[in-house]
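Predict the holo structure. Ligand: V47.
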Amino acid sequence: MNLDIINRSDITDDLKTIATKVFAGERITTKEGIILYEKGDLSFLGALANFVREKKHGNKTYFNKNFHIEPTNICIYNCKFCSYKRNIGEDGAWEYSKEDMLDIVKQYDNKPVTEVHLVGGVHPKRDLHYYGSILQAIKTHRPNLHIKAFTAVELEFMIKKAGYSLEEGLKKLKEYGLDSIPGGGAEIFDEEVRKEICGAKSTTDIWLEIHEKAHKVGIPSNATILYGHVENYAHRIDHMNRLRDLQDRTGGFNTYIPLKFKKANNHLSYLGEVSTMEDLKNYAVSRIFLDNIPHLKAYWPMIGKETTQIALSFGVDDIDGTIDDTTKIYAMAGAEDQQPTMTTQGLIQLVKNANRIPVERDTMYNEIKLY
Ligand code: V47
Ligand code: SF4
């Protein structure tokens, strides 16, 4: 099968060189990453990405049982792709109190969830101690629930507002109960493109610094990319290259999550959305390029259940969680699944129908149950 694609008569020499390297377990260069995007057809990319995926994880496909809390959509920034942000007092703005959030946690008291994913807008009045007290209350109520919370953008603001250095702030949040950091806020690292789509918020350097410092104080994290807007292939490779370099230094990233730009209700709607073929190509190149990040996640509410199943043959080994209908950021941007709930049975069937093995995991990818 490996030789099959290398021997294809229509494959150019540069693609053959790349395939030979990937099959030998060698790292590809940034230039080769761009060649894959530009010249690799879907069957070629799929074969290579699936080789990497199966070498790392065989047929296993991970999911977890989690729920989301979005404390507020009030945000000091105005990212052009964001459909969700509101100003204080504006129609559609919400903010949960600490009690509201604890009530949400309590709704899961008799359910076997292992993780809460807590992410929202950057509220001008809330600092590290405010959010820290929420983490503390959740931990007191349910000590074994893993708290994956706050993008680097939220963290920068709340830590600085409390007058801490980034490292001190991260340590303090860890004491309050923070277990890991989700991948949001990365968007696109190229400074020009970042300026164009979300110029005011945390810089690339700060995003990377926060994740590096978090890894160093024992807080693992995820990484995302927002793709399919004004960026080009070189920007996507540059983004992944910065993550690959950081991961070489720390090993703290668990998973990479490509987020497809969705066009509803935001200032970039005029751009439209990229095709499913582009999504699959992007998963495949990500899996091939990011040789040191263990997992590649398809966020199913965003791309829909059918594309998620196909993505399992293009490098993806993780499909996130059962979620419930508690996340609004994508629904408001026009996600495929407007009410993203899926039962465990639904997730298992989705994976089995794609001839893969469903594995329930915790946040750190410890296996809980094979189905
Ligand atoms: O950073 C905002 C994205 C992210 C749009 O770590 C949009 O497990 C598409 O990071 N179209 C936040 N995307 C969510 C996030 C995440 C999601 C799931 C799992 C994990 C994890 C992290 O949502 C933002 C931004 O890139 N986003 N608006 C939009 N219109
Ligand atoms: Fe605020 Fe996040 Fe929306 Fe940007 S993407 S405006 S930081 S909520």
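Residues 302 and 330 are 7 Å apart (CA to CA). Residues 75, 77-79, 82, 84-85, 121-122, 153, 198, 201 surround iron/sulfur cluster (ligand 2) (CB under 6 Å).
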